[in-house]
Amino acid sequence: MPETAKKVYAEFNVPARKAEELDRFGLIPDGTKVTEKPEILFARLDPVLINEKVKIMEEQNKPKQVQPAPAEGTTEDAKPEITIEDFDKIQLKVGKILTAEKVEKSKKLLHFTVDTGDRIRSIVSGVAKFFTPEEMVGKEVVVVANLKPATLGGVLSEGMILFGEDEQGLVTVTTGRKTVPGSTVC
Description:
CATH architecture of the largest domain: Beta Barrel
Strand content: 15-25%
Number of helices: 4
Low-confidence stretches: none
Number of domains: 2
Distance between the termini: 63 Å
Strand order of the largest sheet: 3-2-1-4-7
Structural class: alpha+beta
Shape: rod-shaped
Order of helices and strands: HHHEEEHEEEEEE
Helix content: 10-25%
CATH superfamily of the largest domain: Nucleic acid-binding proteins
């Protein structure tokens, strides 16, 4: 509004009045000409533009979603929520570990061959400080079967074995009873 008052004075071609003069009438000399090309002081606003600006302001003023604090004793950072469609992209299968060995030149990696029903997969996991190769052979595990292959420690990995972690270390995620390699986890 302060800029609008200046525009009004300019339109009427008069100087700004002092506060003590505001209660007096007739201070503008007779014959004072208003501007030749008046400017629209309060132009009509386009409703579409206004709605767009309102949406932007609403987005900016939306309260940010607060992630719940992790449960006491956990150190893992919370990850963003996913939709059921995101989860549905993950193919989980039961696999049976056929062989396990340490990866040369690595203290962390174990190389497994895993039967997932459709084929025998090579899977590398950074779990050597928690498990020996001998104790892993024969275990039924849950495998992410459609993970993009990657080379870890110079060995091709065609999936991921799921593990749980607590204060005592890692545990394998297994089925509740013996089942067939390739069974779907759902």
